[in-house]
Amino acid sequence: MSLDQGRVEHYKKDIINAYAKSNDVSKILDIERVQNTDGQFRKIGLKTFINWDVFDNPSSILVFSDFGSSVARGETKYLIDQAMQLSRTRREIDRTELSPQFLGERMTSLLRNDFVLLAPITLHYELFLNESVWEPFYDSRQRAFTIKIGSQRVRLLSIHEDFIDNNVIGLNGNFGRWKATPGDNNSGLTVTIQVAQENVSQVELVVSSLVKFEPVDPMSISVVHVR
């Protein structure tokens, strides 16, 4: 028996939407889509086997969005790892020392329109949403909070602690290039979804992206470790 293609497309859409919603890389760097790779691209993804009746039985329900968000988070971790390796300027401070004045003095040379501040989720909510200090504002167009550093508003993205530890990272688009192969869907996103019937009882699902980070300017990134 063949798979219900209507259900397959429905699940693919769930994966694509979740990938797009969780994709932080596109908020940090412009994505350069390439057709050919040089053998140095990294495949980020997962493969799993799902019971066949999930694609055939209307009463069988499985949340497929997690597959898309997992790949997006994998890309974020890869980018953060590369940023930490590239950084040449690091400073360790106590939490009480973290202020708009401190970041302004430390990162003033990086402040451009494409500057972004990456922070662990705990600091995002415990410190950066303090209205009297950071003047946070959610920019729906950029899908990100902005905070005030000196006279300039900058984007703030919250990153899971498992990826960024207790580091606050400031960077602009000069720090590197992100390349990716186009996905096999019409969404314009760089995620590939493969669904194939493995046998009479299982279906193989592969969700992945093929990406590469190329470092450019180590001086376009600054890291502060908050104790």
Tags for this entry?
single chain; about 230 residues; alpha+beta; 2 domains; 7-stranded mixed beta sheet; 5-stranded mixed beta sheet; about 30% helix
Which parts are unreliable, with pLDDT below 50 for 5 consecutive residues or more? none
User: Which series of helices and strands comes N to C?
Assistant: HHEEHEHEHHEEEHEEEEE
Share in helix: 25-40%
Architecture of the largest domain in CATH?
Answer: 2-Layer Sandwich
Number of helices: 7
Describe the main β-sheet briefly: 7 strands, mixed
Cα-to-Cα separation, first versus last residue = 58 Å
- At the first level of CATH, the class of the largest domain is Alpha Beta
Strand fraction band?
25-35%
Silhouette: elongated
Task: Describe the strand arrangement of the main beta sheet, using strand numbers.
Answer: 3-12-8-4-7-6-5
Tell me what the structure shows.
The protein is built from 7 helices and 12 strands. It has 227 residues and is of the alpha+beta class. The strands form 2 sheets. A 7-stranded mixed sheet has the order 3-12-8-4-7-6-5. Strands 1, 2, 9, 10 and 11 form a 5-stranded mixed sheet that branches.
